[in-house]
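Annotated sample (chain length 266).
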Amino acid sequence: MRYFFHIAYQGQHFSGWQKQPGVKSVQEVIEQSLSKILKKPVQIIGCGRTDAHVHASQFFFHADFETEFEFDLLFILNKSLPHSIAVFDIIKMEGLPHARFDAVQRKYDYFIHTYKDPFLGTQSSYYHENNLDFKKMKQAVSLLSQYKDYRNFCTHPDKYEHTICNVMEADLFVNAKENRIRFHIASNRFLGKMIRILMGQILLIGKGGLSVDQFENNLNGAERPKLLLPAHPTGLFLSKVTYPYLNLVPKTEFLTDTQGTEWLSV
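Output written by the structure step:
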């Protein structure tokens, strides 16, 4: 029987979702907890691969079990996991749906603050920039859904069969004081470090180091960016994953009400 697990995690203490030798990953920590509880090895498949120190306010993985649980696995698993990982739902599925390959949309949000704040340091990226041109940044963001090939915004494009991404949503928000920024993007798929690279280019536009026309030339493939500087991983959240058969509202309230912040579209 296949089960989907609906979870969230803070990624600052992990080297990403995917299990890798010699580093601490979210996948490995969960597999170790499940294996200890069930007293046999358990392997899980996640809905994607977040980078080191990247968060997920909604994430799914699936696992197969021979029998139904005769105890409260949700409660016991949450007690076993660190505070940085929470399991919200364990859902018995019909057939063998795939947590990664069946996802039709993934949404990400990237948060920036332009003043030093010890309470935002692990959830938002600190960039000391006081004169960003939000209108030009917004112009650049509005172009994203008009183009499909994101080869120029990927660290290792040749490892993919193709670099086509169907960007369905892209928007930029600021707070009333203009010292906090939220970049939102949704697509059927994303390439390696694609969102952080886009965020880095959008910040460069805001600082006047790149024009919107140059950015569009990079988008349409006319030229490659001269410099690819990914934004910091802290501040990036996988915030929603949607399936044809499963569309759950994220349980965490971090994205909708961060210290009472009202996000205004630029």
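Annotation: The domain at 2-92 is CATH 3.30.70.580 (Alpha-Beta Plaits).
Annotation: Residues 173 and 217 are 24 Å apart (CA to CA).
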